[in-house]
Amino acid sequence: MTKHDRRPILGRRARARFFRRAAVVAAVVLAFAIVGFVTAARSVAARAGAPGPAPAVVALLLLFLFAVMMLTLRKARGFALPLSAVMDAADRVAEGNYTVRVEDSGPPPIRALARSFNTMTERLQNADRVRRDLMADVAHELRTPLTVLQGRLEGLLDGVYRCDDRQLSQLLEETRVLSRLVEDLRTLALSDAGALPLEREATDVVALARDVAASMEPDAARGTASLDMSASIDSAFADIDPIRIREVFTNLIANALRHSPAGGTVRVNVAGNGQAIVVTVSDTGEGMDAEALARLFDRFHKGPGSRGSGLGLAIAKGIVAAHGGNISVSSAPGRGTQVTFSIPAAEQAPH
Length: 351
Description:
The structure is a single chain. This protein is 61% helix and 13% strand. By secondary structure, it is an alpha+beta fold. The chain folds into three domains: 3-97, no CATH class; 129-192, Helix Hairpins; 201-344, Heat Shock Protein 90 (2-Layer Sandwich), CATH 3.30.565.10. A five-stranded mixed sheet has the order 2-4-5-7-6. A two-stranded antiparallel ribbon has the order 1-3. A hairpin with a 3-residue loop joins β4 (265-272) and β5 (276-283). It is elongated. The relative contact order is 0.07.
């Protein structure tokens, strides 16, 4: 058995010794209290010239104090056993076992501690699962372009492919896929850590939305869908990073166009109430069921027919959150999808 393996056992033994010593100390204190009380009663009676307490009275008093001592020890045991169970479970969590849970028992403070402990371990278990899934997803996403690059390069060296501009452009495109994936992962990591750098400046979100919509008109035309931009206000200024928010607009509109059928419509609307700017991107596509809706912002989650990395919406959520806003989605099968995000409005428009 290694030193690391012995540590939890030694910890449990130390706690058991602590609780035993605490019980002994409590018993000794109570015993001294009983003796002191009886001695004080006899002393007071002697000074008053009264006869000392009758043996029966003393016996009843001792019996009462003994009952109090036993009740105190029982209460202490009621605290000690559940607390010891929580401490044992904490040792197992420290060893990496996030499936452990403790029974919700004991006095109210201990039950509250047990519930908090179970909530913590559940979150740790979910975080560990997400981490493992993320590592597997990253490995999978990196493997595809790397495999293509390796196969093409080996083919060029073996003379299977001609070394011409067409082959080189395809290899270059695969390196761009890798570069985009790495940059997306970097942005997501910074967002999760709350360290996403933002170059804030006063920006008219209405003008920004119109500019992005105009730049994506060719994409809409190729998909034979219409892109409709509207705003209930003439301008809406916010202290934002325009490049990051443009990325959010582009991602949401591109997703809406991708899932809109021929002849469908994608609508972008900007509204404001003085305190927040609300942007809604809706489509007339196939919509989503409740299961897909719940996983929409998960990393590497891809819908049917998706050609991206599955990071776009997770990044969009992180960017909006970094600006102090929030993002939500509503959808139903056959009724299209509506994504709404809001960001705080500027206190006053720039002059």
